[in-house]
Amino acid sequence: MKLVTFTVSDYRSITKAYKLPLGDFAVLVGPNNEGKSNVLKAMVLSLGLLSRSRYFRAQRQLRYAYGENTYDWKRDYPVQSQKDYPDGRSEFILEFELTAAELTAFNRKVKIQLATNLKLKLSCGSSDALLDIVLPGKAKTKLTKRPQADQWKEEMARFVNERLDIQYIPALRPSDMAERVVEDLLARELAQLEAKEEYRELVKSIEEIQRPILESLSNELTTMVASFIPEVRSVTLKSGGGISRALRRSARVLVNDGTETELEMKGDGIKSLTAISLLRHVSQRSLGTKGLILAIEEPESHLHPRAIHRLREVLADIAKSHQVILTTHSPVLVDRYHPSRNIIVQKGKAAPAGHISAVRDALGVRIADNLATASLILVCEGKEDEQVLRAWLPLLSKDVGRALADGNLSIDPLVGASNLGYKVRLHKSYLCGVHAFLDNDQAGRKAIELALDQGTLDHSEYHLASAKGFNDSELEDFIKPEIYQARLLSDLRVEYKPSIMRTSKGSWSDRMKLNCKDQGKEWSKSVESQVKGIVSNCAAAAGLESLIEGRRGSIDALVKALEERLHS
């Protein structure tokens, strides 16, 4: 079961948000105080009412005991409308996509021949929350004429309750928030012990019975949290005492990041990361037949930029098996490749973004004109590489050529591999995807390795210019010497000597340096730039005629990756 659209009207600052699309990963963005949190809280409230609340019958209407998912009419119904509409109600419509098995089970349990998605409407007033189903006219009329008019509502609520759970993490994540997450885990794991007779009879030995579970969870949580926060050496759960059911939720959280102390004594960053990283554990534990919707407000709060990139990976991993819905001010957490998965909330309304530029505007991102329409940036080492790639890529792929022409793909030279991390972070802050294409030399490999370690890049976001037969290679190794050797001779009086240039030792620049020195020519940065300029000018003018066929493997791999990312 998956929540695929959500509609809310007249809830706090939100007057109308119609059929917001929700996939595996949905992001709510917008200026401060425009309603992002209210849209998320509306989802949490309505899902909580369906998946966690108790229900009872009164006055032939189905009502809900709200529990923690409270609705306060004076607080939650729009203040500006309360005087004119004293009986006004906040409404939520949740559209669920069911699997074939779930659809069959629903039709059998509720005795409705549902042919499409399940649409449920919750209407919250000052004293009750009413549940209804959205159906075409005839089907709805037939349903409401049943002798037991409310039973089908009860069955629908139970159906959702058995298949879906909601986990909400607010923007402020102090230590008690992290501990509550841990206690939720303990409650699920230790509930099984209460069914054992010896557990009920031997309360005094309960801590001994719990110890293996606490140790097992401690080990699992240590692995999980340490993968996200490398400085954490261990996470230990210790029973806080108590008896019976109270023991289920009684635990102390000790974090060792060099010194083992109570979580509440750690800094905000560690508290925040610990609380969120524990959710990866939740997502990987068995929820039975239930799915999980994870709703988080501003998960980037208190985090170092490097940690935000790691956080993005963790959330993406959770989204492979459960739904993730979040609010954010961070460009790193926005879905750059699918603009419509970002929901823009402003002026009391919410709607999916039509273009990445709308997301940039919502986040207040200012971007250079030449990047304004770009969704993907190809970073290369220098201007010479840019010139060659701009000539080759349109000839190697119509899709890539079209993207370059319309500005959806842009090429940005680094002017040195050491600038890779800075440029990648900059472009990603502009909500652009980034793909790196660097020389396969010591500097290029070091820059890629550092970006991977820092979480700035992942393995799907780079290629090295690897030429067959060379330990170190640059883009110039892919260019036929006969294309540029006449210009080299006429402009610099330097002959291209195969005996020096065709050896596999050193990079192309190292070999060209030896080639020049062998002929009595000095080598400097300016000479290197002039030589590379001659090579790139000649290669660009010749097009694909300049590309050595036997060495084009990494070029073809780059083109394929760009095509896939442009279409993703």
List the helices and strands and how they pair.
Blueprint: E1 2-11, E2 14-21, E3 25-29, H1 36-51, E4 54-58, E5 61-65, H2 73-76, H3 79-82, E6 90-97, H4 100-110, E7 118-124, E8 129-133, H5 137-144, H6 151-161, E9 164-169, H7 175-190, H8 197-201, H9 206-228, E10 234-239, H10 244-248, E11 251-256, E12 260-262, H11 268-284, E13 291-297, H12 305-318, E14 323-327, E15 342-346, E16 349-352, H13 356-363, E17 376-380, H14 383-396, H15 398-406, E18 409-413, H16 420-429, E19 433-439, H17 442-454, E20 462-465, H18 481-492, H19 498-501, H20 508-518, H21 525-542, H22 553-567
Parallel strand pairs: 2-16, 3-14, 3-15, 9-13, 13-14, 17-18, 17-19, 19-20
Antiparallel strand pairs: 1-2, 1-6, 4-5, 6-7, 7-8, 10-11, 11-12, 15-16
Q: Brief description of this entry?
A:
By secondary structure, the chain is of the alpha/beta class.
* Strand arrangement in the largest pleated sheet: 8-7-6-1-2-16-15-3-14-13-9
Q: From the alpha-carbon coordinates, what is the Rg to the nearest angstrom? A: 30 Å
Strand content: 15-25%
- Uncertain spans: 55-68, 241-249
Describe the model.
The protein is an alpha/beta fold and about 575 residues long. It has three domains: about 1-25 and about 55-165, no CATH class; about 165-290 and about 290-335, P-loop containing nucleotide triphosphate hydrolases (Rossmann fold), CATH 3.40.50; about 365-568, no CATH class. The strands form four sheets. The chain has an eleven-stranded mixed β-sheet, sandwiched between helices. A hairpin with a 2-residue loop joins β4 and β5 (about 60-65). α14 (about 385-395) packs across α15 and α14 packs parallel to α21. The two termini are about 25 Å apart. Residues about 55-70 and about 240-250 have low confidence and may be disordered.
